[in-house]
Amino acid sequence: MPFVYSVSASDEQAYVTGRGSVTTAEAIKTLNSLLADPQFEPHFSVIVDVREISYSPPDQSEIIRVAQAIEEVATTPTGNVAVIAKGSFIFTAVLLATHIRTTCSINIKVFADWSGAKAFCMQGRLVSLSSASD
How far apart are CA 110 and CA 22, in angstroms? Predict the structure, then answer.
């Protein structure tokens, strides 16, 4: 399986890791599985680590397909989504994130390292906790 995920209820986060050769269909399948997982809550943040994937650069239609798949799911994440990418995939990840942010209103950013991604996700969690206490 090119993608695996885990959900940590105590951290209010989901972790998705991609390895090896991946396709758009596999990415969408993983997304649907995660969002349908009974342990996942919409307010959880998500860290997607794609530093170890090998890929052929997707064309614009594949990027749009992923964004459409997110729009079509019943549970859209409201927590921050961080994508960790490296090399030439950073450009593709930024294009995808921009399209998702625009069409799905998801707060998604791309990072080159784990610490930046984790800090971004924690920032979203702290904001939601402070809003809940107001």
Answer: 19
Q: Name the amino acid, one letter, at 20.
A: G
- The CATH code of the domain at 3-133 is 3.30.750
82-102 residue pLDDT tens: 989 888 777 777 777 777 777
Sequence spans of domains, the chain: 3-133
Distance CA 103, CA 2 (A): 26
Read off φ and ψ for residue 58, nearest 5 degrees.
-70, 150
- Cα-based distances in Å from 95 to 12, 29, 39: 27, 20, 29
pLDDT tens-digit map of 103-121: 777 888 889 999 999 999 9
